[in-house]
Amino acid sequence: MRTHTTLKSATPHNPAAPQGILFFESALDAAPAGDLPRYHAHGRAALANALDEGLMADEVEQILDGRKIVDAFPVWRGESPADYAARAVAEMFVAYLQ
Questions:
Q1: pLDDT of the residue at 36
Q2: What domain count does the chain have?
Q3: What per-residue string of b and e applies to 29-46 under the rule 16 or more CB within 10 Å gives b?
Q4: Residue 35 placed within a domain
Q5: Whole-model pTM over 0.85
Q6: Cα separation, 80 vs 92, whole angstroms
Q7: How many angstroms separate the CA atoms of 74 and 45, rounded?
Q8: Alpha helices in the chain (DSSP H)
Q9: For the chain, how long is the longest CA-to-CA vector?
Q10: 21 part of a folded domain
């Protein structure tokens, strides 16, 4: 059974966390809190949901193939981070199985 217990929170303050999956190497270090890229919360929610649902960080990186989560699975107009995360992870599983 696969687990992701060795992964910790995917924040720039955790050197073991997957880097570059969201927007750039360290979104919080690169921009002040008020200047975070658009849909940053959506990307973080999708990554956290993907890891919670059983995808490993390397599997997420393989699915994204160098793209950002919100580029690979665009956010729909008016979609909340929680709704986006559920939909994006479902689409990730489909992409993973193909």
A1: 52
A2: 1
A3: eeeeeeebeebbebbbbb
A4: yes
A5: no
A6: 18
A7: 14
A8: 27-30, 40-52, 57-64, 69-72, 81-97
A9: 41
A10: no
- Spatial CB neighbours of 94, under 8 Å, sequence gap ≥ 6: none
Q: What is the 3-state secondary structure (H, E, C) of 3-41?
A: CCCCCCCCCCCCCCCCCCCCCCCCHHHHCCHHHCCCCHH
Look up residue 68 and give its two tokens: 């950002």
Residue 17 lies in a domain: no
> Minimum mean pLDDT among 25-29, 43-47, 50-54, 71-75: which range?
25-29
Range of the domain at 83: 27-97
> Is 20 within 8 Å of 64 (Cβ atoms)?
no
**Residue 39 banded pLDDT, cuts 50, 70, 90:** confident
Quick check: is 52 in a domain? yes
Between the alpha carbon of residue 44 and those of residues 1, 30, 97, 98, the distances in Å are 25, 16, 22, 24
User: Does the pLDDT at position 56 exceed 90?
Assistant: yes
